[in-house]
Amino acid sequence: MSDKKMILHIEDNFENRMLVRRLLAAEGYQVIEAEEAFQALDILKTKIPDLILMDINMPDMDGYTLTNTIKSMPGLSEIPIIAITANVMKGDREKTLKAGCDGYIEKPIDVDRFPDQVAHFLQQSKTL
Predict the structure, then answer these.
(1) Tens digits of pLDDT across the chain (128 residues)
(2) How many CB atoms lie within 10 A of CB 80?
(3) Which CATH superfamily groups domain 6-126?
(4) Cβ distance 51 to 80 under 8 Å?
(5) CA nearest 62: which of 25, 101, 36, 94?
(6) Exposed, middle or buried by CB within 10 Å (0-12, 13-18, 19+), for 115?
(7) What is the pLDDT of residue 125?
(8) Minimal CA–CA distance to 54: which of 79, 78, 82, 31?
């Protein structure tokens, strides 16, 4: 069994998915991608990631609703969900955390800091 951490990245924008995949693969993570919420829910029927990176603004279901849905599913409530969002106005971080996300990363992501941010959230999840 591999000790490589599995990360589910839910993002409708191809360029954003490609950037995150490149950054995380370079750090040795296994990245699974979903372009939309219902695809993510299908993936979660058969795979349990160590961390979920969640876009908030998606066309089929927003990230707040999807986070709530995932957190209510048996066996998935403990998976940390980190919002990656361009919603950076006053109150957006709080709204994201109130919706059930365990953390918050602003878009555009800082490519130098992003791998450390992900590692931090993975490390935090071990202490929960």
Answers:
(1) 457 999 999 999 999 999 999 999 999 999 999 999 999 999 999 999 999 999 999 989 999 999 999 999 999 999 999 999 887 888 888 999 999 999 999 999 999 999 999 999 999 876 55
(2) 18
(3) Response regulator (3.40.50.2300)
(4) yes
(5) 36
(6) middle
(7) 74
(8) 82
Residue 71 neighbours by CB under 8 Å, 6+ apart: 77, 81, 100
At position 53, the amino acid (one-letter code) is L
What DSSP element (H or E) covers 52? strand 51-55
**Could you tell me which residues are beta bridge partners of residue 106?**
85
- Could you state, in order of their start, the residue ranges of all structural domains in the chain? 6-126
